[in-house]
Design brief:
Number of domains of chain B: 1
Strand content of chain A: 15-25%
Oligomer: heterodimer
Shape of chain A: globular
Helix content of chain A: 25-40%
Number of helices of chain A: 11
Radius of gyration of chain B: 18 Å
CATH architecture of the largest domain in chain A: 3-Layer(aba) Sandwich
CATH superfamily of the largest domain in chain A: Glutaconate Coenzyme A-transferase
Number of strands of chain A: 11
Largest interface: A-B, 42 and 47 residues
CATH superfamily of chain B: Glutaconate Coenzyme A-transferase
Radius of gyration of chain A: 19 Å
Strand order of the largest sheet of chain B: 1-5-10-11-12-13-14
CATH class of chain B: Alpha Beta
Largest sheet of chain A: 8 strands, mixed
CATH topology of the largest domain in chain A: Glutaconate Coenzyme A-transferase
CATH architecture of chain B: 3-Layer(aba) Sandwich
Helix content of chain B: 25-40%
Order of helices and strands of chain A: HEHEHEHEHEHEEEEHEHEHHH
CATH class of the largest domain in chain A: Alpha Beta
Largest sheet of chain B: 7 strands, mixed
CATH topology of chain B: Glutaconate Coenzyme A-transferase
Structural class of chain A: alpha/beta
Shape of chain B: globular
Number of strands of chain B: 14
Number of helices of chain B: 8
Structural class of chain B: alpha/beta
Distance between the termini of chain B: 11 Å
Chain lengths: 284, 243
């Protein structure tokens, strides 16, 4: 049996400057932060980040990795606004391509189904059509009076997600309340699909871990690599394994106050091997 | 609070989705009293029965599994009434909570983003809750249109207007709707202790007015009891509203 297990650094080695990377999770929930930290430490640059975004995008903005953000929102949930993303936006240092949340689902779905676009009424009348240069209007072939928005497929160069458990081949389960759009993120990337998980278990134990087939939502045909990293989503939540680390999140937010504060935070929490991060974070 | 609850009167069996602490409590008030068929979220991935808004000491009674993906099925089927906030809102109800400033690519202030506002407003009933009614919020023109107003929906054609249903704006001072000329915002009632002049001063554009302008009703004893003892016993509301 082929194992797809690898290290965060191996994931980074498969990525290139200028790539479009989809990131799973939602806001500050179940984000693949250990892979994000590895990207943050790497020499990668000019990335386009596609995400229901939180500290994944914020951290990469703070580390100067982001050329373009493709997001319907950026939030830390318990702290509504993401300060590092805001700083990058207000400095005009990244391009922002705005989306509606549901429209975002359609972009991922179109890529997953390999069609160029999906139609919707979402976006009509709003400034999305003026500010998002990839959106087009399309006339219904069934009623020429009806004009809808064509949401282009979000074809991803790579996708990264964090799940609760997986087997060594990439069959994975979520144990929290919501899969979010992780399966679509993985399907929207034809190659370079990586997941990190809290724990790797043998395939015969997957169903027992899940408790129900309904949680077996990521199949190995959607996954190219598996990183086993307990705490890999920290400081975001990964219930039921752990809740969001609110005090860590506050520290991360406070680090946006000055260049000096960021340097200190970065030295302690980002510019260190992941193993050291995990050792230190449990000692907090 | 009861003015917000009143937004849901007559809605029937749909998802009442008021966003934020005060609107969430108001949705529960509506369901517990005059609109019993509403369905409400737990703020995560379930639609729940029971009147509690934030904590479920006796356990949650789940009616439906509703992860984010299912929420779009609800939104696009139209069976939902959302109450959103707004950093800016104009006379036709165009809303902005994405960014402030003339240049979108280098805004003066970056806010939350478009979220679901474009989709919500053209698919189902929408109302707004503005906790601090001021001329900085009620502006002649918003910097970015996130939620669609009456004029922009009309200009965008039949697919935009087919299910467009922008209803009310409830603030800390008053209740407003879009019953003015060409669907402009109109003052419907002022809250007890607030004058019409207070509202006019706090609004950065000319308001149409209902004739007569009413006074918003006070909560009933039963509504107060529900809020204090059942829906929000821990007093989450006090962070946003003084008693």
């Amino acid at each position: 049996m082929i194992s797809k297990q690898l290290h965060e650094d191996d994931v980074v080695a498969h990525l290139e400057d200028g790539m479009t990377i989809g990131v799973g999770g939602w806001g500050s929930r179940r984000k693949p932060m250990s892979i994000v930290r590895a990207i943050a430490r790497s020499s990668l640059r000019d990335l386009t980040i596609v995400s229901f975004a939180g500290p994944d995008l914020g951290l990469l903005c703070a580390m100067g990795k982001v050329a373009k953000a493709v997001c319907p929102f950026v939030s830390l949930d318990s702290i509504p606004l993401e300060p590092h993303f805001r700083a990058a936006r207000q400095a005009g240092s990244i391009e922002d391509e705005p989306w509606d949340e549901g429209m975002f689902l359609l972009g991922l779905q179109a890529a997953a189904w390999r069609v160029p676009f999906l139609p919707t009424r979402v976006g009509l009348g709003s400034d999305l059509l003026a500010l998002n240069h990839r959106l087009r209007l399309v006339r219904s072939p069934f009623d020429e009076d009806v004009e809808l928005v064509a949401v282009p497929a979000f074809r991803l160069d790579a996708a990264i997600c964090h799940l609760n458990r997986a087997d060594p081949r990439g069959n994975a389960i979520f144990l929290g309340p919501d899969l979010y759009f992780d399966d679509l993120m993985l399907r929207a990337a034809p190659t370079r699909r990586y997941i990190s998980v809290e724990r790797v278990v043998p395939t015969p134990e997957l169903l027992a871990e899940a408790g129900t087939e309904l949680r077996l939502r990521v199949a190995r045909l959607m996954v190219d690599g598996v990183v086993e990293r307990p705490g890999g989503a920290r400081f975001t939540s990964c219930v039921p394994d752990y809740e969001r680390d609110e005090s860590f999140q506050k520290e991360y937010v406070a680090a946006a106050k000055s260049a000096e504060a960021w340097t200190t935070f970065r030295r302690e929490w980002i510019d260190v091997p992941e193993e050291e991060f995990q050792r230190k974070v449990v000692q907090r | 609070m009861v003015a917000l609850a009143e937004c849901f009167r007559g809605d029937g069996e749909i998802v009442a989705n008021p966003i934020g602490t005060i609107p969430m409590i108001a949705g529960r008030v509506a369901r517990a009293t005059f609109e019993p068929d509403l369905m409400v979220t737990d703020g995560e991935a379930a639609l729940v029965a029971g009147d509690e808004a934030f904590a479920w000491p006796g356990g949650k009674v789940v009616e439906y599994y509703n992860p984010y993906r299912s929420m779009f099925d609800v939104v696009w089927s139209g069976r939902r009434h959302v109450v959103m906030g707004a950093t800016q809102i104009d006379p036709f109800g165009n809303q902005n909570f994405a960014a402030i400033g003339a240049d979108y690519q280098a805004p003066k202030t970056q806010l939350i983003g478009f979220r679901g506002a474009p989709g919500n407003t053209v698919n189902h009933a929408t109302s707004y809750w503005i906790a601090a009614h001021s001329p900085r919020v009620f502006v002649e023109r918003v910097d970015v249109v996130t939620g669609v107003g009456w004029d922009r929906a009309a200009a965008a054609g039949p697919a935009a207007t087919e299910f467009f249903d922008l209803r009310r704006v409830v603030t800390n001072l008053a209740v407003l709707d879009f019953g003015g000329p060409e669907h402009r915002m109109r003052l419907v009632s002022v809250h007890p202790g607030v004058t019409v002049a207070d509202v006019v001063t706090a609004t950065g554009f000319e308001l149409a007015t209902a004739d007569p302008i009413g006074e918003t009703r006070l909560p009933t004893a039963e509504e107060l009891r529900l809020i204090r003892d059942v829906i929000d016993p821990d007093g989450m509301r006090r962070a946003e509203l003084p008693d």
